[in-house]
Amino acid sequence: MTLGIYTFYKSNPTQSQSHAKSAEAISFEMGHQPISNRNAYKKGMVQHMAQTISDTALYAKLDEFIDSLPSKQGALISVLHKAQDIFSYLPKEVQNHIAHKLDIPSSKVYGVVTFYSYFTMTKKGKYRVSVCMGTPCFVRGADKVLAKFESNLGIKAGTTSEDGMYSVDALRCVGACGLAPVVIVNGKVYGRIGEKDVDGVIKDFSAEVEA
Ligand code: FES
Fold first, then answer.
1. 176 close to ligand 1 (CB < 6 Angstrom)
2. pTM
């Protein structure tokens, strides 16, 4: 990679010096590292570049959704739902991006994200199991449903599996009390769920994992 950058700048001396400097810095930094560290460094650089490219694609997807809205007024909640579907969580950078696109203050976006327990600022698994623990759900056995998900997936509420595939969370009322107890997996609502239904719900989204 360094040789490629060197060749490029040698044949294009007018190109940005700052870029040439960063190439030298990379070369210097790598040249003074043991081979194993250099490989780790290269791997880190490749991962960083892949991350940046995939982030760009995710932002483009979010922008496409926002731009397709007939009106941006009052669209914050649906945009946040879409953003969480796309990014799996709502870090500060994503919130700022949404504020900019909707032309509203970042503090307003932050206020909504922290008000609704469905929204999260912590990175979650690819499959996010949310068990409502509001009173109507709780009195109909949501605690047992939650415990069953925890034991079947091998993780505690509020955590994510090591492979990044699953996370389990306990939420406050999600506004569907008529269906209590309620479980939401990646936005799909499962109503009147009992302990005995947990295997079926897991099979439902596991089929997608295996496909
Ligand atoms: S308490 Fe669970 S949906 Fe309202």
1. yes
2. 0.59
